[in-house]
Amino acid sequence: xxxxxxxxxxxxxxxxxxxxxxxxxxxxxxxxxxxxxxxxxxxxxxxxxxxxxxxxxxxxxxxxxxxxxxxxxxxxxxxxxxxxxxxxxxxxxxxxxxxxxxxxxxxxxxxxxxxxxxxxxxxxxxxxxxxxxxxxxxxxxxxxxxxxxxxxxxxxxxxxxx
Length: 162
Fold this sequence. Notes:
Layout: E1 2-3, H1 5-15, H2 44-57, H3 65-72, H4 80-94, E2 100-101, E3 108-116, E4 131-139, H5 145-157
Antiparallel strand pairs: 1-2, 3-4
Helix pairs in contact: 1-4, 2-3
């Protein structure tokens, strides 16, 4: 089991959010995060440090990766709304500080990665969005022909396979 419970608890204590109730979701989808037009956050260094610490957590906490990436777009001029959403992610992490990755010794793991560089552009920043898909296949019985066939069918459905 790979987790970062000690790191998460230290992060929550440093941010002063250990006593808060965790939300159900890491991000409020109703909140728009424009790059301009909101009250600027004055302590940019604190925002950058918090985002760096959250980026480190994304190695194990894959469920917050997208949201941290969205907030990291605003490192140069964060607003109060960005800072509040960052603290929402912290409170969400508090709900399950033990969450991590479990790898058993008796399994066989295979990693495949695919990249689509002909992606779309981001509506907010007009930058190119590149799609990266990583598939980690873990099978209890690596020689099982049925699991190999199911895996190949899944790749074809995603238009990734042969």
